[in-house]
Amino acid sequence: MPASTPSQEIIRLEHIGLQYSDDRFIFFDVNFSVFAGDFYFLTGKSGVGKTSFLKILYKAVHPSLGHVHVFGYNLSALSRSELPVFRQHVGLIFQDCRLIPTLSIVDNVALSIHIGGSQYRRSCSYAKELLDWVGLGECLNSHPDALSDGQKQRVAIARAVVKRPALLLADEPTGNLDDENAFRLMALFEELHRMGTTVLLATHNNELVKSFAYPKLILREGSLLLSDNGFSTRKSEKVQ
After folding, report:
1. Which has the closest alpha carbon to 4: 185, 166, 206, 207?
2. Alpha-carbon distance 50 to 42, whole Å?
């Protein structure tokens, strides 16, 4: 994990724009910085580009305009060989889970830290702890096709946080969960945050957002707005 301090800039967006094939800009001239230890909700109506915004931050989508720096990497200049090293420090939670169907859920979760060099037994031990935390301790040897959508999402969350990433990018992580499990998993995200993980969590769940005192980044009409979660809102300031 990259060494970081609370004042260290983790993400720097400079005049970012994203244009789809119909020449319509989803967002334009976005400038913002995220610092080590920040926690933001990313909100906005369906179709405003929340998923694309997160994908830009781990180089799955290339912006049409501007420059993105994450952990000091200029993502537009990042080579193919550097990409896996960069992504080792980023935890990703996708809407479609992307579990490996031929592996048990404990192996799905343990795989990323095992690939990183941890012994298999140790990797599985930590994976079992996290799966127990998300309420799947009795399903360790089950395969993804035996799980409900909500259970698959909880496996995906455990997999994303098992490495204690420096940056967690979560795209609707509680979308398939009931309120009880959504709030339980927020406790897990908060624990990671207390340990130093920087979190960007995209969500449509307004009740979840209102229940936690973290600021919001709002994508609206092509701009990124910052709100302190109900008290004041301002347009994102340009990075100097």
Report:
1. 166
2. 7
- Residue pair 51/110 in contact (Cβ under 8 Å)? The answer is no
Instruction: Supply the CATH classification number for the domain 9-89+165-235.
Output: 3.40.50.300
pTM for the full predicted model = 0.86
Supply the pLDDT for residue 233: 40
Count of other CB atoms within 10 angstroms of residue 22 = 5
Q: Break the chain into its structural domains and give their ranges.
A: 9-89+165-235, 96-150
Angle 149-161/120-133 helices, nearest 10 degrees? 130
How high is the mean pLDDT in each 10-residue block of the chain (240 residues)?
A: 67 93 85 95 91 94 94 92 89 87 93 73 88 90 92 89 91 86 87 93 90 93 84 38
| Residue 29, Cβ density class (10 Å: 0-12 exposed, 13-18 middle, ≥19 buried) | middle
Q: Is residue 47 helix, strand or coil?
A: coil
| Cβ-Cβ contacts under 8 Å for 119 (sequence gap 6 or more) | none
